[in-house]
Write a structure and sequence with these properties.
- The protein is of the alpha+beta class and 112 residues long.
- Helices cover 21% and strands 22% of the residues.
- It has a single domain, classed as HIT family, subunit A, CATH 3.30.428.
- It has two helices and five strands.
- Strands 1-2-3-5-4 form a five-stranded antiparallel sheet, covered by helices on one side.
- The longest helix is centred in the middle third of the chain and has 17 residues.
- It is globular, with a radius of gyration of 14 Å.
- Bound molecules: guanosine-5'-monophosphate and zinc ion.
- The site of guanosine-5'-monophosphate has 13 residues, from strand 2.
Length: 112
């Protein structure tokens, strides 16, 4: 895929609107357009990486930063202590539809 046709690259470049909750140097985060949970945020690296399958050893700090940012955003949205889920869908068979790496942050259900 050419990056100019990538929906998440378009959002990162500001060509497509999104409800941002974080704009960092390497990672942005915005609300999922079709939320599957009361809180559903997508954490997206500015660098176009197709999927987890394309991560290289040089991307290890970026991958770690995504997980740490997920925790920070869970704190910010008030779901950290109640609990949340983090998910990477990987390629078609893994349920990936947007081929720009992203980490789903889900939470905010009623406490058990
Ligand atoms: P995937 O199945 O690829 O892991 O997840 C892609 C997610 O991106 C889906 O949950 C879908 O609702 C969300 N999504 C797709 N297009 C857009 C968009 O243009 N804006 C936003 N905010 N979310 C999107
Ligand atoms: Zn992209």
């Amino acid at each position: 895929m050419i990056e100019k046709d990538c929906m998440f690259c378009r959002i990162i470049r500001g060509e497509q609107p999104a409800d941002f909750v974080h704009r960092g140097e390497r990672i942005v985060a915005f609300k999922d357009i079709r939320p599957s949970a009361p809180v559903h945020i997508l954490l997206v690296p500015r660098k176009h990486i197709r999927s987890v399958n394309e991560l290289t050893p040089e991307d290890a700090p970026l991958a770690a930063e995504m997980i740490l940012l997920a925790h920070a955003l869970a704190e910010k949205t008030g779901i950290a202590s109640s609990g949340y889920k983090l998910l990477f869908n990987v390629e078609r068979g893994g349920g990936q539809f947007v081929f720009h790496l992203h980490l789903h942050l889900f939470g905010g259900w009623r406490p058990q």
